[in-house]
Structures are given as structure tokens and as C-alpha cells.
Amino acid sequence: MNLWLPIIIVTVAAATYRILEKVISISTQQSPFITAAIIGGVEMLVALILWLALGRDATGVNVKSLSLAVAIGLSVVAIDAGFLFAFLRGGDLAKVTVWTGAGTVLILVLVGLIVFREHFTPLQWLGVGLGLIAMALLRVG
User: Fold this and answer.
1) Do 83 and 18 touch, CB atoms closer than 8 A?
2) 59 in Cβ contact with 107 (< 8 Å)
3) What's the pTM?
4) What is the pLDDT of residues 97-113, one digit of tens each?
5) Which of 13, 77, 86, 141 is the most exposed place for a label (fewest CB within 10 A)?
6) Do both 23 and 69 map to the same domain?
7) What residues contact 67, with CB distance under 8 A and at least 6 apart?
8) What mean pLDDT is predicted for residues 75-80?
């Protein structure tokens, strides 16, 4: 499978996700935690259906993968609740998304360099710098 197809799928899904979070936060005053619980329930149901449909067995489950999956789940709840709180407090869709995206890139660049010993080309470093500039310009604008 071409690498671009999953990137396109994730990008379109993430944009749709953020737009719908903004819509739900301005159209209802529902608790972000209830919304996150519903999102998690749907996610769990779809994952279970796909697991059953694809006939995967559970023999690959171990304590390490289970604990990492729980940590990812907690991260997802924090992401959902954080965005919903930001939108409930009047945060702009574009600005909040750019700020969190740029912040995430910075953290992941540092983790990639320090923990995973990844390397960046000068052009990639330029991209990181442009992300920082975009974040700063949105802040002052």
C-alpha cells in the first residue's frame, strides 16, 4: 500500500473530526467528558467489529501491549476533552488546531531525536521552523 493513502485518510478524518468537535461544542453545552465517552464507545465498537470481521485471534495480546493501549486510550480522552473545552471556551478551529499541531510536532521532533535517534534533513528542519513561525504568527494576529 502506498504511504500517501493512509496519510490522506488520516488527514481527511482528522480534519472532519476537529470540525465536528467544533460543531458539537457550539451547538450543545454537553460535557466534553460525555462526548469523549461516546466517541470512545463508537471507536471501541468499530474496532471490535473489524477485529471480528477480519478473524484476528487474541493470542498476540500481552501485558505490555495492553498497558500501551490503555495509555493511548487515556491520551485520546485528554485530546478529545482538551479540544472540546477549547472550543466551548470560544477557541478558533484554525488557531487551536495549528497551535496544538505545532506543539505536537515540536514534542515529537524532540522525542524522535532523543529517544528514537531519528535524523532530519536541513529541509525538514526548515519545515519545523516554519511550523513555529506559523504558530507565532497566529498568536500575534
Assistant:
1) yes
2) no
3) 0.71
4) 888 888 888 888 889 99
5) 141
6) yes
7) none
8) 86
For residue 84 the three cell numbers come to 472540546
Of 90, 111, 132, which residue sits at a domain end?
90
As a whole number of angstroms, the distance between CA 84 and CA 95 comes to 14
Please indicate, yes or no, whether residues 16 and 60 belong to a single structural domain of this protein.
Answer: yes
In a shared domain, residues 57 and 118: no
Q: Are residues 81 and 117 in the same domain?
A: no
Q: What is the pLDDT of residues 11-64, one digit of tens each?
A: 888 888 888 888 887 777 778 788 888 888 898 898 888 878 876 665 556 677
Same-domain status, 44 and 74: yes
Residue 102 CB coordination number (10 Å): 19
Residues 15 and 82 in one domain: yes
Cell of 58: 487474541
Q: Fill in the DSSP letter of residue 116.
A: S
